[in-house]
Design a protein that fits this description.
Elements lengths: L2 H7 L3 H8 L3 E6 L2 E13 L27 E6 L3 E7 L8 E11 L1 H7 L13 H8 L15 E4 L10 E4 L16 E4 L21
Antiparallel strand pairs: 1-2, 1-6, 2-5, 2-8, 3-4, 4-5, 7-8
Length: 209
């Protein structure tokens, strides 16, 4: 793993996440390579963050988040979707950046084959589950480290300017963690691949019909 990248990732996710905008994430399989330019991410701060999977401590599901930086944390949700996070910080901390959306910049045909329901190329990796499918990343990839020729993360040559980066509450996070108190969603203003904002749906009380 690139030492400079590892050093850069060894920081809290709220510091790393904005710098991921414009970064290139590529995954190579027997079918070929798909790469995306990241356009939307969310930061999660573990036990200090009520929106994080690690808020209540380490479990078998989230243990990768507590590992060293430079790995990906992939989880399965709603019984059908995979989501991909970049693990940040230092070993023993649980801080990571959820990759919410990106533009497919390499392997477009392969991404189209994987995402046959996409209406256009802007939809190929718009949303965390779609991004995972386009890249061909699944639960079996949980814990994988970045490695040349397999799974690579390349920081942008020029970081996105502050005037083009927007911040706000995270998508679909319930409770306090989904409020303006945690404006840890970062995206490139005006990019067509950014996913639409949706607040968490309030949970229905038992017996409410």
């Amino acid at each position: 793993m690139d030492a400079a990248l590892l050093h850069w990732l060894a920081r809290p996710a709220v510091e790393v996440a904005p710098g991921l905008l414009g970064a290139r994430l590529a995954h190579t399989t027997a079918d070929g390579t798909v790469a995306v330019r990241l356009t939307e991410v969310e930061a999660y701060m573990g036990e200090h963050d009520p929106g994080s999977h690690a808020f209540r401590g380490q479990t078998n599901r989230n243990k990768v988040m507590f590992g060293p930086p430079g790995h990906i944390y992939v989880y399965f949700t709603y019984g059908m979707h995979h989501c991909v996070n970049v693990v940040c910080g230092h070993e023993g901390q649980a801080t990571g950046a959820l990759l919410r959306a990106g533009e497919v910049i390499e392997g477009v045909d392969l991404a189209r084959n994987r995402r046959t329901s996409a209406k256009d190329d802007a939809e190929l990796a718009r949303g965390p589950a779609r991004l995972a499918v386009a890249l061909g990343l699944e639960l079996g990839d949980n814990g994988r480290a970045f490695a040349a020729g397999e799974l690579t993360l390349t920081r942008p040559a020029v970081q996105a300017s502050h005037q083009h980066v927007r911040t706000g509450p995270r998508v679909g996070v319930s409770g306090e963690g989904g409020t303006d108190a945690y404006p840890w969603r970062f995206w490139l203003e005006g990019d067509p691949t950014v996913s639409p904002y949706r607040a968490a749906k309030p949970r229905r009380r038992a017996g409410s019909g």
